[in-house]
UniProtKB/TrEMBL annotation:
PANTHER family: INTEGRAL MEMBRANE PROTEIN, INTEGRAL MEMBRANE PROTEIN-RELATED. This is Membrane protein. The chain crosses the membrane at residues 21-40, 60-78, 90-108, 114-134. Keywords: Membrane, Transmembrane, Transmembrane helix. Signal peptide: none annotated. It comes from Paractinoplanes toevensis.
Length: 215
């Protein structure tokens, strides 16, 4: 009976984690669309995505998906192993952002644009807490950062993240991506928001049930 109960609890926990993962990834894509519609600036990776989209004519979401493939290939020399969340992140976020951009009304006027920006940043913080808290593995871009730090332990996470994000920000800006007050606001707000939401959203994987002999 105890073993059956433990198994049932584990199944429910897995179901919650999967639901949380996909909810978080969809909301992450929607949050990206909010910030695009604001026109007030994007986070560094999305500046890069938008710049590539403008340069190639490929939709924003498909750029997110296609760029994830070579980034994942960089995981191989870094000895990173993708999880379910990594593969889901690769596709779900891209489809979600394109879907949201197709239905969201344009932000006319400063109040509407600020609303999109603030809503996008808040939603991004929640979405990050949800998908990371599901414990199914990091997204391709986050895994690149942690993989570099793992292979070169003398480098700090702060240094590696800053170097990567400044690089993609600069290239994205040169390609026509939007840099503005939203870029700064995101940089200042996302850390505290994830710090707030992640503990609330973290679901630990179920423990393996222990079998005990009964005399």
């Amino acid at each position: 009976m105890a073993l059956m109960t433990a198994t049932g609890n584990g199944d429910r926990r897995l179901t919650r984690r999967l639901a949380q993962l996909f909810t978080g990834l969809v909301l992450y894509g929607v949050s990206m669309a909010f910030m695009v519609e604001s026109g007030l600036g994007l986070n560094p990776w999305d500046v890069f995505h938008q710049g590539l989209s403008k340069a190639t004519g490929i939709s924003f979401g498909w750029v997110v998906i296609l760029l994830g493939v070579p980034i994942l290939l960089l995981w191989i020399p870094l000895r990173q192993k993708p999880g379910i969340g990594t593969i889901a992140n690769l596709f779900v976020v891209g489809f979600a952002v394109d879907g949201a951009l197709a239905v969201l009304p344009a932000g006319h006027g400063i109040p509407a644009r600020i609303g999109y920006l603030v809503g996008g940043i808040l939603l991004n913080g929640l979405a990050t807490g949800l998908y990371i808290g599901s414990n199914f593995g990091p997204g391709p871009r986050d895994g690149l950062m942690t993989g570099i730090v793992g292979r070169f332990p003398k480098l700090s996470i702060r240094l590696v993240r800053t170097a990567i994000e400044l690089t993609v920000l600069g290239v994205g800006f040169l390609l026509g991506g939007t840099v503005g007050i939203g870029t700064v606001a995101y940089a200042l707000a996302i850390g505290p928001l994830v710090h707030l939401f992640l503990p609330l959203c973290t679901v630990a994987p179920a423990r393996e049930p222990k079998l005990t002999s009964v005399d």
